[in-house]
Write a structure and sequence with these properties.
Shape: globular
Distance between the termini: 18 Å
Radius of gyration: 21 Å
Number of domains: 2
Order of helices and strands: EHEHHEHHHHEHEHHHHH
CATH class of the largest domain: Alpha Beta
Largest sheet: 3 strands, parallel
Bound molecules: tryptophanyl-5'AMP
Amino acid sequence: MTVQEPHDTIRRRVFSGVQPSGDPQLGNYIGAFKQWVENQDAKENFFCIVDLHAITVDFDPDALRRQTRELAAILFACGIDPDKSTLFVQSHVTTHAEGCWILNCVTPVSWLERMTQYKDKSTGQESVSTGLLDYPVLMAGDILMYSAHEVPVGDDQRQHVELTRDIGGRFNRLFGETFVLPEAIIPEVGGRVMGLNDPNVKMSKSYSHIRGHAVRLLDEPKEIQRSIMRAVTDSGNEILFSEDPEKAGVNNLLGIYKVITDKAERDVERDFADARGYGDLKRRVAEVVIEELRPIRERYYELMDDVAELDRLMAVGADQAREVSEPKLEEMKHRVGFVLPG
Ligand code: TYM
């Protein structure tokens, strides 16, 4: 048996995912969704709403159900085109859970215990689910079962993609070439958008309910304006990109502006050469963010008016995802010596 190559051998295959937990925020958009949308024509794309991952920490079933549909609508509203990309819900395609089991059995526990995200999420918790420890194996299966070359993600997922390569490589060595080993595609600027209330902490869905921490993708213009105007900066007045930790707040705002306007660093700094202090900087950053998110919010509400159509699109996506991942799962089963049903 040979490694099953993507159907389309000219375009590179992309796989990425997002959890339907919390309110999607500007970091998700800049680190992930924006690049997913922009590369749709050039690549063959699979985007997954990872509800199996979302139940690894405390969750509310009603909220999960609601957030799964909302996230689908947000992704379509951001520009994911169902004619160009496959968007689907992870639990609709059972190969993910099944493939994860097989990969579990080739993954040393010690590899999982050293994952920084596991350490962060488990520290101080009274009880930690087995699912939380196993989370990166499920993610590895997501990617490997689609023979993805590229995984466009924010910087916080880098270690998980590296682990995916380790797990896939180990399986290939033990059972023969089965998996394509993927590469993380992380934006140079915008790979780690920081919290507006604390530029030393990553902007996160989990804190997006905290006032002033994040811009949520569905926030009204007034709310966006308020959060950005309150962003923590420093006591200086220089508006330049900088690695200086003291300047992290200004650097973060400039990074957001840069990605949204798609300008070079030098041009961004030039745009602010006439700015009078950080107030001006914040006002202009708020303006571009508001204009970027306005059509997304409008389209989102249109899409949420027709939930049946959203569900239909999810079902089409799941069919397309099964077509690719089921043969790979069969190949995995064959490799490890399972007798395939006759
Ligand atoms: P999740 O749901 O936490 O985030 C979705 C995407 O948004 C990126 N991101 C950010 N990028 C820049 N700055 C930020 N502040 C920021 N916050 C979040 C994340 O890096 C991610 O790309 N484990 C994944 C979901 C997943 C997955 C996969 C991803 C499951 N299976 C397979 C890729 C491939 C996660 O929890 O993403």
